[in-house]
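Document type: protein sequence-to-structure record

Subject area: structural biology

Format: plain text, a pair of labelled lines:
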Amino acid sequence: MAGRGRLVPTLGVVAVGTVGYYLYTAGGNPKVAEKQFEHDAASASNRVKSDLPGKGKEAKLQGEVWAKQAGAKLDHAVDDAKATIHETDAKLSAKMAEADAKIDHLKVEGIQKAKELRKDTDKKIDEFDATVIRKTQEAKSGIASWFGFGK
């Protein structure tokens, strides 16, 4: 029973490795990979047929079945990969749009805060100027009163 526990994952790794090999040798084109796999399966079938007399037709049929199954699995894997890419692209586009909206909002908010700060600064400067003028006039009248020119 312990042997079966490792058999399934091992077969899975072999299957994934085989699909990866055929995709790699086909330059990422799933149709070419499928044709190459079918060719290799046919070659293997012919070898088995030549080694086992009377089993040629059975081996050929089984090889064709396996090739079709492998092709279907390969097509399914490619479709899943494409769907994942499109889903990720849509999510990325949504995040980029959200980031652009946040940037625009922060820009408007920053401009508004800068205007408020300028307004407050101008008000403080005007108050300071008024205080300086008032204190200067008070000082002038105080000095002038010493000499008899004031009030």
